[in-house]
Design goal:
Elements: H1 2-6, H2 13-41, H3 44-62
Length: about 60
C-alpha cells in the first residue's frame, strides 16, 4: 500500500506512512465503537444472537 500511495498518488514516504498508520489505527478501533453502538441499541444478547446467526448463514452459503 505504501508503494501505491507513493506511485499514483505521488505522496512522500512520510505522508504515505502517516496515512497507513491512521488507516490501521481506525481499522483496529472501529470494532470497539461498533460494539458499543450495537450493545446500546440492540442489547448484548440480541447483538450476539444476530451476529451468530448472520455468521452461520454466511458460512453455510459459502460451502
Amino acid at each position: 500500500m505504501i508503494l501505491y500511495l507513493m506511485g499514483p498518488y505521488n505522496l512522500h514516504l512520510g505522508q504515505a506512512n502517516q496515512i497507513l498508520l491512521l488507516f490501521a489505527a481506525a481499522s483496529k478501533f472501529m470494532p470497539v465503537v461498533g460494539a458499543f453502538i450495537a450493545d446500546s441499541y440492540l442489547g448484548r444478547f440480541l447483538s450476539v444472537g444476530l451476529g451468530s446467526a448472520v455468521s452461520f448463514l454466511l458460512r453455510s452459503l459459502r460451502f
